[in-house]
Amino acid sequence: MPASTKEIAVFGSSATRPGSAEWEDAVRCGRLIAEAGLAVVTGGYCGVMEAASLGAAGAGGHVVGVISASVFPSRLGPNPHIAELVEAASLTQRIHLLLDRASAVIALPGSLGTFAELVAAWNDAYVAPLSGRRPQPIVAVGGTWRKAVEAVAAQLAAPAELIHFVDSVDEAVAAVVRAMRPFGAPP
């Protein structure tokens, strides 16, 4: 992978099964990211992670998987579409490595683990200006994330506007691609 290729973290449920609408959306997400010349980085296992990896690899994209065998000993190993494997010692290190590599984040439907990743990305975007960094673009797909983030934001007076909410994978990837363009570049 060229050093200049930006990586997009894709978060989502490990319970998503092949053939489901969520699986097909994740495959499409990975493919669209790769077709835009961006790499995909996921948690490396099954479900949405595998589907996004499959879509990206099938389109000739680079796929990174960040796994943690000590946290998930019952998982059979990384999905077969990963070109670059990174091992994390803990769950928090895994999330840190995903965010550290990513130029942007897309959260697809998921559960508590996906929400933890989304909240970590949100918090990182919130504190980024304190160290002179530009916040990573964060895009969340679906109404569940909007409701969850708005509830947390209301309780904690947190800036929900750091997360861009969309209804589809196509909108999510388009938002990330726009955010990855150099300033002043044509659309």
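the 2nd protein, sequnce then structure:
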Amino acid sequence: MSDVIAGFDWDDGKWPKCGKHGVSRAGIEALLSGDCAVYPDPAHSRTEGRSLAIGQVGNRHVLVAFTFRRLGTKTLIRPISARYMHQKEVDHYERQRQS
């Protein structure tokens, strides 16, 4: 994903929603700039395309909901929410990766 994005669009209203679960801005940016699985999330937005990114930050699995925003000619990632994954979700994700 890192070759597609020019940076991040942090919304002051969304940051508290991301940060309240203990995932730092640096962790979110590292996940979205690195190697993560990305899935569409059409169920959670009717007005904009949203996606879910799943991957590891350090030794913890993280799930980030985000959308893409255009600013002039640049494409930015706008994080919407982030949290550490529950063990049941981690187990499911790891099984899917191995099959």
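The chain is about 25% helix and 35% strand. The mean pLDDT is 87.
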